[in-house]
Design goal:
single chain, alpha+beta, 4 helices, 17% strand, transmembrane helix
């Protein structure tokens, strides 16, 4: 089981954000950010990764560029879920609960079931 923070939009939509390391953020970095509608972050990361990929690997600068790119992906893994939480809050979502579940959809279902049981 994983811990998920549940965010609720005033209209009733819900989002679940896993706590800790973000594997999708690590493996897909800029694309993951764009899929999660973090347009500025995603575009910035995409430009950075493309520019860094332009340096030939045979040179010392190319090796440095590769290490920086790896650092970008590691930063996305470490901070991705926290960045997503901040982004949801900036879009008007409110943190309403933290639940344990095996996946995001399950976390939302547990939250809704618990909320409905309390009514």
């Amino acid at each position: 089981m994983k811990e998920f923070k549940i965010y609720q939009y005033p209209e009733g939509r819900h989002e679940a954000v896993k706590q800790g390391w973000s594997w999708p953020g690590f493996f897909f970095g800029p694309i993951w950010a764009l899929v999660k509608k973090m347009w500025g972050l995603g575009a910035g990361l995409l430009v950075a990764v493309i520019v860094l990929a332009m340096f030939p690997m045979e040179s010392a600068i190319g090796l440095l560029a590769t290490l920086i790119s790896l650092g970008i992906y590691v930063a996305c893994g470490i901070n991705g879920n926290r960045w997503r939480e901040k982004h949801l809050s900036s879009r008007g979502y409110e943190h309403v609960d933290t639940v344990s579940a095996s996946n995001p959809d399950g976390a939302i279902a547990i939250f809704i079931k618990g909320r409905n049981a309390g009514e």
